[in-house]
Amino acid sequence: MILRRYLLVWSTVALAGIVGLLLLTPLSWLAPWIAGGYALAVAARSGLSMLRSLRSGSWGLDVLAVAAIVSTVVLGDYWAALVVVLMLTSGEALEDFAARRARSEVSALLERAPRVAHVERDGEVADVDVDDVVAGDRLAVRPGEVIPVDGVLLTAASLDEASVTGESLPVWRAAGSSVMSGAVTTDTVVAMRATATAADSEYQAIIDLVRAAADSKAPFVRLADRVAIPFTVGAFVLGVSAWLISGDPARLAEVLVVATPCPLLIATPVAFIAGMSRAAARGVIIKGGAALEQLARIRSAAFDKTGTITRGVPIVVRVEALLDDVGGVLGVAAALEASSAHVLARAVVDEAAQRSVVVPHATEISEQVAQGVSGIVDGVPVRAGKLAFVAAEAHPEWSALAAGETAVHVSRDGRLMGRIVLADAVRDESATTIARLKELGVDHLVMLTGDAVDTAVQVGSLVGLDDVRAGLLPADKVAAVRELAPRPAMMVGDGVNDAPVLASADVGVAMGARGATAASESADVVVLVDDLGRVLDALLIARRTIRIAYQSIGIGIGLSVLLMVTASFGVLPAIVGAALQEVVDVIAILNGLRAGRPLRAGSAARAARR
């Protein structure tokens, strides 16, 4: 498949090998004819493509590539012609691969979408294709399954709605509440009645948004293309002028030899690849040169809250003890929660381990859905969970929980021991990252979240974000990002619910460390390390890479122009010019490789002033 798809790349490599072998035989005289003929055939193919592009008003490096191939063949430098052909065909192959990769985000969403629904009909539960579900069907959704269609709950349920709203904590929904497809059941079998088909439900709407956003992205003009027109026109004007003035047609060939676009064809991609490699070393994957160039120009940025500004998982923020000490409260809670699969249970157990709390042995453990856990510790009944379940008669004079906080209460022998307060904590690096982005000239910073307004505003104030928009569904986020100014705009998020907005932003950045496949596939940049500060690193690397790429173009073109002017006077033989052009190429390429070096304080400062 790969061989057939990128046939020209492999053909060029194979032909170069054949030509090299021919040079070792008595048939060496065939080598220039085979190499030159092949190079001219590829040039003709590119020329036809170039003509089609010209009709649509588009110029590009194909003009330079065709000129380089023809001039090197005319001058008998067939090895140089094959090198240019390889660069041209491999560039096309990389662009094709990137396009195929960009379309895969829809596939990632479809892989997660439920395919089977458990429908109750005639008193029996039958598994049917999710597309066969109609409004009015009664469904059963088992623990851990994705709700297949929008509907109304017939039984109360604890739901993980992170895929739809971005909320990290499970949400308790009473019977009669509306529920959106894409949410995941956590505790028990849930009964619901469908109110829409799969095609008309929320999860399918997310898939459609990703597809539409990906298809609507404007084609991106490659960095070197913007130099192609003046450089190409200038080379031909100079060469023809030298020919006409001197009457010597060799002047044109001599000018074209030193006008080969290798600094553009090679040095710029080298800088981009080196920059992307440096980003990868920092745990950031940048998907192609277009994404890197857009990232370097970012003027606005939007952030999801859960899993991006915050850690995305609950942690213990404080323990308040009434009976015993803090360790005693944590120990009893951890003893009960150790066997629970609830998201809050893991946080309690981890906190007890981190504080080296002695956890007693609990027996006769029993969990009541959406209430809490009970058991026996040292012969005494203990409970952990909601206050009404743990100690219904207790009325502690505690301060009210802050926005975004929840509590696990603990009792022993019916008496309230204390409570453990948990929250989705703000990342340590969030405030610093926001502040540095402002210093770098990112003028508009906003947080977009599906969470409650109070929680969102509190988190925004902690990290220095004044523009906070809460209670948003995926479509609302897409609309908000499309309205951001100045452009280009970057969106940073994670989770399936962020996939549409990541695809619609000029640059989508996915915090992919937690395995949010759809978000990672939709994004242009993926942060593999669970660190928001790596977004800042990526922006600095992108800016430095673009600066070095422009330097490489400037050095290559500047030296080439100097050589072209010299050649136009007839004092630079073609063979000498070809050798000097190779020196120019090496200089430009070596400069491009600097983009792969680690960032230094001076580099970061220059990027900040950009």
Task: Tell me what the structure shows.
The protein is of the alpha+beta class and 610 residues long. It has 5 domains: 1-102; 115-199, Calcium-transporting ATPase, cytoplasmic transduction domain A, CATH 2.70.150; 224-282 and 545-610; 283-310 and 427-539, Rossmann fold (3-Layer(aba) Sandwich); 313-425, Calcium-transporting ATPase, cytoplasmic domain N. It is built from 23 helices and 22 strands. The strands form 4 sheets. A 7-stranded mixed sheet has the order 10-22-21-20-11-18-19, with helices on both faces. Helix 17 (453-463) links the parallel strand 18 (444-448) and strand 19 (467-469). The model is unreliable at 101-106, 216-221 and 602-610 (pLDDT under 50).
CATH architecture designation of the largest domain: 3-Layer(aba) Sandwich
Described by the principal axes of the CA atoms, the overall outline is elongated
Q: Note the main sheet.
A: 7 strands, mixed
Order of strands across the widest beta sheet? Answer: 10-22-21-20-11-18-19
Average pLDDT, rounded to a whole number, is 81
- Give the radius of gyration: 32 Å
CATH structural fold name of the largest domain: Rossmann fold
Number of contiguous helices: 23
**Broad structural category:** alpha+beta
The CATH class label of the largest domain is Alpha Beta
Topology:
Elements: H1 2-5, H2 7-22, H3 30-55, H4 62-74, H5 78-102, H6 104-112, E1 116-121, E2 124-129, E3 138-141, E4 151-153, E5 157-160, E6 171-173, E7 178-179, E8 184-185, E9 190-194, H7 202-215, H8 225-246, H9 250-258, H10 262-281, E10 284-286, H11 289-296, E11 300-304, H12 305-309, E12 310-321, H13 326-337, H14 343-354, E13 362-368, E14 372-377, E15 380-385, H15 387-390, E16 405-412, E17 415-426, H16 430-439, E18 444-448, H17 453-463, E19 467-469, H18 474-482, E20 489-493, H19 499-504, E21 507-511, H20 517-522, E22 525-527, H21 533-568, H22 574-593, H23 601-609
Parallel strand pairs: 11-18, 11-20, 18-19, 20-21, 21-22
Antiparallel strand pairs: 1-2, 1-3, 3-9, 4-7, 4-9, 5-6, 5-8, 10-22, 12-17, 13-14, 14-15, 15-16, 16-17
Helix pairs in contact: 2-3, 2-5, 3-4, 3-5, 4-5, 6-7, 8-9, 8-21, 9-21, 9-22, 10-21, 10-22, 11-21, 13-14, 21-22, 21-23
